[in-house]
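Section 5.1 Outputs to date
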Amino acid sequence: MMNWRWSQWRVVLRAIVTGLLIFVLAANVWPPLLLALGVKYSVPAEASFLGLFVWWAGGGGPPKKTTSDRRIAFRRGKLSAAQWGWGMAAALSFAITVHSALVVLFRFEPFPLEMFRSGYDLSFIPSLTLKWIAVVVSAVSAGICEETAFRGYMQRPIEMAIGVPTAIFVSSLFFTLVHLSQGWAIPGILPIVFSAGILLGILAWSSRSLVPGMVGHVIMDIGLFAYWWTGLAGDFTTRPIAETGPDKAFLIACGVFGSAIAAFLFSVARLRTCIADCDR
């Protein structure tokens, strides 16, 4: 990095600032809407906002002089049927990887229930159905906004100016840093968050699209919101292996984790092959 030219440093700094601004401005629309309007009225409002956000981030609207740059940052492009298939396989295996990693982590140390539930109180929402709707919309909002910010507007320009490894590292680092304020950001979680950023960065680069990463991010976040953060789908009550020993449930979780990573890497490799075939 010490040999970078100023023009390269400028691209990196601009990408970081732009990505963070996109994240802060877009991801923080839904929470105040939900609190102010309730689920019934906030959902259509957020859907309208996300539609406009994707349209603008993908190159629509003013200013016209940034249209091309926005299209490039958003990784706009068509996916073939095979690319869609392997992209969705990678998205699903990504989400399974993250959740199985959490299960494995909390077999090594006690699950800090109160820290994970801090800031995710849904008691103000009157019905179970509306709570599930809020969870899904929260996940969709986070998936779209965060992938656009970090794997799009932050990572893509750095890929073009410096290279893919540096771009993925930088986007993953800042993806982790912006989550440090969360109550669940305990030391054991941070490597999982950073690794999730790495996998999402690889998926965005491999697919040349933000869509597979958005899908994987949304699936992951539905599980995070519904299970780990709110308890809507149940509570993790399994004791650490220090108390139980490496029981069958622990071995299964380890097997799922390893299999999910292998499936992700295989899907990404197939995705790259499909894209290479299309480029010929």
